[in-house]
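Memo to structure team: turn this sequence into structure tokens by end of day. - J.P.
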Amino acid sequence: MRMNLRDYRLIAYIAVTLIVLFGISRLFMSDTGQYVRITEGGSEIGTYPIDKDVMINLTHNTVTIKDGKVYMSKADCPDGLCIKQGAISHSGEAIACLPNRVSVTIGSGKSGIRSAHLPVNYSGIHFDTLVSATINGMSDTYTDVNGIIRSECERFELICSRTNSSSELYKLNHGLINEKKSVNIDGVDYTAYKVSDELFGMISTGLNAYETSDGIFDIAIGAVTDLWDFKSGEEIIPDKVSVASALTSVSTDSIKLLDNNYIVITDDNTVIDLGGLAKGYIGDSLRKTLTDAGVTDAVISLGGNVITIGDKSGESYKIGIKKPFDEKGELLTTVSSSDNCVITSGTYERYFRKDGRLYHHILNPSTGYPFDTDLSGATVICDSSLTGDILSTTLLAKGYAGACKYADELIGDNIYVILSDNNGDIVYDSRP
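Reply from structure team:
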């Protein structure tokens, strides 16, 4: 096949790139301590000891270090233009994936393995939310924290998404789970579906939250949620007939939990929606996973859910709480957090205005329409992201009088609350 000018230019570019990569690697060479240096899109992912087996998951590539050798074990390249996909193992050798701007070089240094550059930052869109993290301290310098966060978020998307047809929750709602059995409840035969520990735990927590919130927090509201659209900007209010019809299937009594992670949904029209607690559950899981991986100091944000691990250089993290409906980005207040969670729910997060009325995304399972509340925001400070998620939604829905009474009761459990009204002013603050 005849090569064209574009091919020659590409080959020349590849050659220059390899020379540059070789030169960079030589800068770090010395007598002892080989390491692997990885960059993606111009940003350094980290440096890793070549004698430790580890897999580094990047956006479109996977780099594997095993038995003292380095492989580009996966490369999602538009043109298949990855350089030297085989193993490298000596200082000065390099692998490059030009389309994805990934480079892998081997170097050495007198002081042994260089620690990964800190802070390590992560940013990605998951669950229709910007997930970000800054890792300021970790005990294990070759831990692929970005890969951990990305893979955990992607894993949970395939567990608890209501709309992704590949997710476990979607399959449960639509009766598509393969592992199932027939059960008899009160003389009626139903199909029970076996789900993962995570999904079973989230649904169990949701059913418990329904009881503790006096019916405000209802995971059986999915049929109503499907009627509302707070993303496209079309500002459509569902008609009363559709809402009334959807409300007939909103009942936690339709969800039965059985032994060994089996679940029965007795009403075919009931749709489980875990949007009110999923980010809280995932936040707690991410914190544990990162801590187990050696992270000692970090701040993680999943939209209105902020989780801190340790503190920053001995000082508490300062978490900003956005002022409701403020377009300039002004802060309502800041919260000090060390090994804690700061969770905020607000009517200003997803909403539209029509005919002078505000329609927000926190829906009342009794009416099918947004809660009529005189609060615009509720922030909960506690040690569990999941607890904070449930409480912040419940407090917001209760309105000022009910939320203040409830928040007073939470102080004894070391849970603190900040409430803001529809003018964007703080009207309650139980912080010590």
